[in-house]
């Protein structure tokens, strides 16, 4: 009745229906940390700078977050004065126009959701050009219905666009290497430039492009050395063009860089592990040029011969990741008391943050810590597809797959050298790539069956399995943790989730407008009709909280200097974190550690 093409397009439509059904749910009923900076200050500042020719003010942040300003800035057409949402701030006590909170955040979040939908369509097209339509469909299905990717797409933050633009750039460059067509060159420039305009971590793409060109030379099957050399020269010249044009795009949309070198310095300083990235780039590019134009590729051809002889050793890389994933799942379930997972808070930015621990883990322990949040935030369908891909051997599309595995390895090592823990937010760029490799694994499974409906059956399993993962965690998508992690463990904080629900409880209390609430983390005040306080220091003679709203994230920050806050402001929240009977409580994903609770303050 339907052709294979028709079936794929029907499912593609269903994927986007599910994406918007879940994505629009709860879209306006939470506020995360740092969002208020983008909504109230940075995005309006960028558009004000453009409108009035104040070009230095286009440097709104060192992320730099320009694509976020371009996308979410559409919200200014509907909410032109976001700062008016906070209409009173006296002695650090905040009062918001709570009736306008949801319209305000809808205006700034909906454009991100729509932009990522368009980029997912592009992902479907470009992956189809690289592989086949089934793998393209499954890739988009696993990415669009990923709780982590859908969750970040609801948040006004540069990471919300980094994953989609980064994936678009990377797959465009793969297509350029595969075909050499000029359109892929322009698409790579476009998406790489906009990825750089999104977040500084995208600079990792440039040395990785160089690595891909080198890997292709070392593994490509060509009849003669002249063809290999010609391909390498083309790849290097294109790479120079991509890097130069991407930087031009960066300067074009961030004109402050033209006007004052301090902004360039500030931008470079915020690039994670910039020294290592520069060493990788220059350490590969300069020797390549010398070998190519002086030594006539003698060095590279020697490496190539050695590499081709050692081709069977390539299996070590996928088997290494398979063993790593299996080891983490086994350890977390059968050795839960291993202090590596309890000694280091799961979502701090810096691994060696002395405020939380002094026992610094060794490299092996840190490597497990880096992959711990990633493994347990992938859906079971993605993990099964990855296991199929990593555990089987297939030559088709091998270069693309092995290159991505190498990218994962380098990415995690760079995070370790930068002293950054790979929470879902900091590894967001990897999730669409995992979706692609899982789709590859599903393809390998279906190819083993002669049943004509094997691919349709696989599509149904992926679709409904992905929907089940979304349904299980809704509406707190970015807090998704798969069922392989025991409920007593965590990989992510509430990150603002639950604040709306806590505020709704407080608003239901008698004389809610007269109440004063102290919160230990962001996400409540903009929904609470009374007076809200988030400062640690205030005059207790003037302000006395009636209720505390407490979270695990806030506990980590507050308890480090609880005695100071009690002395200065009379805060006694430390007494209530373990309260067995709070006035109200929400356990996100039914995990006791991921709590949001409201407690009445004893006078």
Note down, in words, how this protein is organized.
With 603 residues, this protein is mainly alpha-helical. The protein folds into 2 domains: 110-479, no CATH class; 499-600, no CATH class. It contains 24 helices and 7 strands. It has helices at 4-24, 35-52, 66-72, 101-130, 133-144, 147-152, 159-179, 182-196, 205-219, 225-253, 256-259, 261-269, 274-293, 298-309, 316-334, 340-343, 363-375, 380-391, 398-417, 431-446, 454-473, 499-507, 552-559, 562-569, and strands spanning 86-90, 93-96, 516-519, 531-533, 547-551, 584-587, 595-600. The chain has a 7-stranded mixed β-sheet. α8 (182-196) packs across α10. It is globular and about 85 Å long. The mean pLDDT is 87.
Feature tags:
seven-stranded mixed beta sheet; 2 domains; 603 residues; 7 strands; globular; 24 helices; 58% helix; single chain; mainly alpha
């Amino acid at each position: 009745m339907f052709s294979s093409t028709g079936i794929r397009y029907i499912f593609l439509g269903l994927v986007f229906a599910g994406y918007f059904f879940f994505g629009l749910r709860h879209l306006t009923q939470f506020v995360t940390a740092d969002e208020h900076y983008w909504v109230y200050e940075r995005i309006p500042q960028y558009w004000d700078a453009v409108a009035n020719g104040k070009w230095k003010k286009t440097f709104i942040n060192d992320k730099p977050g320009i694509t976020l300003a371009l996308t979410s800035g559409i919200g200014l057409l509907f909410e032109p004065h976001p700062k008016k949402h906070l209409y009173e701030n006296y002695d650090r006590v905040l009062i918001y126009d709570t009736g306008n909170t949801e319209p305000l955040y809808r205006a700034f979040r909906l454009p991100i959701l729509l932009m990522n939908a368009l980029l997912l369509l592009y992902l479907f097209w470009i992956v189809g050009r690289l592989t086949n339509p089934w793998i393209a469909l499954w890739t988009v299905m696993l990415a669009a219905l990923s709780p982590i990717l859908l969750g970040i797409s609801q948040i006004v933050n540069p990471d919300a666009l980094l994953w989609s633009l980064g994936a678009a750039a990377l797959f465009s460059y793969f297509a350029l290497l595969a075909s050499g067509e000029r359109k892929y060159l322009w698409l790579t420039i476009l998406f790489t430039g906009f990825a750089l305009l999104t977040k500084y971590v995208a600079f990792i793409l440039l040395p990785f492009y160089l690595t891909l060109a080198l890997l292709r030379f070392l593994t490509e099957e060509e009849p003669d050395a002249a063809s290999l050399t010609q391909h390498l020269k083309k790849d290097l010249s294109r790479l120079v063009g991509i890097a130069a044009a991407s930087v031009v795009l960066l300067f074009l949309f961030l004109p402050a860089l033209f006007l004052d070198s301090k902004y360039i310095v500030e931008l470079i300083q915020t690039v994670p592990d910039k020294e290592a990235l520069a060493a990788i780039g220059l350490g590969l590019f300069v020797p390549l040029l010398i070998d190519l134009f002086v030594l006539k590729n003698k060095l590279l051809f020697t490496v190539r011969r050695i590499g081709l002889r050692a081709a069977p050793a390539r299996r070590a890389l996928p088997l290494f990741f398979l063993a790593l994933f299996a080891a983490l799942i086994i350890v977390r379930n059968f050795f839960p008391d291993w202090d590596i997972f309890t000694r280091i808070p799961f979502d701090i930015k810096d691994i060696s943050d002395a405020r939380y621990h002094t026992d610094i883990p060794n490299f092996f322990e840190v490597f497990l810590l880096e992959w711990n949040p990633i493994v347990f935030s992938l859906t079971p369908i993605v993990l099964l597809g990855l296991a199929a891909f990593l555990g089987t051997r297939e030559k088709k599309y091998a270069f693309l797959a092995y290159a991505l595995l190498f990218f994962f390895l380098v990415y995690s090592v760079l995070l370790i050298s930068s002293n950054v823990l790979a929470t879902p937010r900091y590894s967001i760029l990897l999730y669409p790539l995992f979706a692609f490799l899982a789709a590859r694994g599903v393809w390998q499974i279906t190819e083993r069956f002669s049943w004509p409906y094997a691919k349709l059956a696989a599509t149904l399993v992926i679709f409904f399995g992905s929907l089940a993962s979304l349904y299980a965690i809704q509406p707190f998508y970015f807090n998704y943790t798969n069922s392989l992690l025991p409920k007593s463990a965590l990989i992510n904080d509430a990150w603002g989730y639950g604040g709306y629900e806590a505020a709704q409880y407080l608003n239901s209390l008698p004389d809610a407008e007269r109440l004063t609430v102290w919160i230990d983390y962001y996400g409540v005040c903009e929904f609470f009709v009374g007076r809200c306080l988030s400062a640690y220091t205030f005059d207790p003679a003037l302000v006395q909280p009636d209720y505390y709203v407490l979270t695990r994230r806030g506990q980590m920050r507050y308890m480090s200097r609880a005695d100071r806050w009690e002395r200065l402001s009379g805060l006694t929240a430390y007494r209530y974190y373990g309260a067995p009977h709070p006035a109200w409580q929400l356990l996100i994903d039914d995990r006791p550690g991921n709590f949001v609770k409201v407690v009445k303050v004893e006078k």
